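re: ur question from yesterday

yeah so i grabbed the chain u mentioned. its 168 aa long if i counted rite. heres the sequnce exactly as i have it in my notes:
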Amino acid sequence: MIYIIMGVSGSGKTTIGKQLSYHLEYHFYDADDFHTPENIQKMSKGISLNDKDRQPWLLSLSYLINNLQEHKKNAIIACSSLKKSYRQLLQGNHQDLVWIYLKGSFEQIMERLDKRKEHFMKSQMLKSQFKDLEEPENAIILDISSTTEKIIKQILSKIIFSEKFSKN
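ran it thru and got these structure tokens back, copy pasting raw so excuse formatting
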């Protein structure tokens, strides 16, 4: 099983993803680690990426997912996946891939980004992320205003419920 934690920058994807991987004993991947050096440099300067910039990144992540599936490995991936077309590319034909959307308001997330110091994503780019965001229809949707512990409990209860439901 592969769970992709999605949402705009600052929504808590890495924090939740790492905690969830700990609880499930799955390997964790941060999609930020798959950006090209050129994209990281561009974002570090406060320049938003376009679809063409994101293409190599998405293809790298697609390769990762295909490789995990081929080797029957479980994983948690923290990945913004803002657009439906990005999610479709990553989903491919994989049935055992579950989307978890961390949803928050612009104000909540801006406050979080303003506190972050050592990250290439700058708070001034948040508007472009919200502009690009196409909220998912088929996802576990969670409000980020809860604590990390409560969000993890919610995810685990939904995962356990859906696994039981799918076996019946």
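noticed a couple things. Helices lie at 13-24, 37-44, 51-70, 84-91, 106-115, 126-132, 148-167. also Residues 164-168 have pLDDT under 50 and may be disordered.
anyway ttyl
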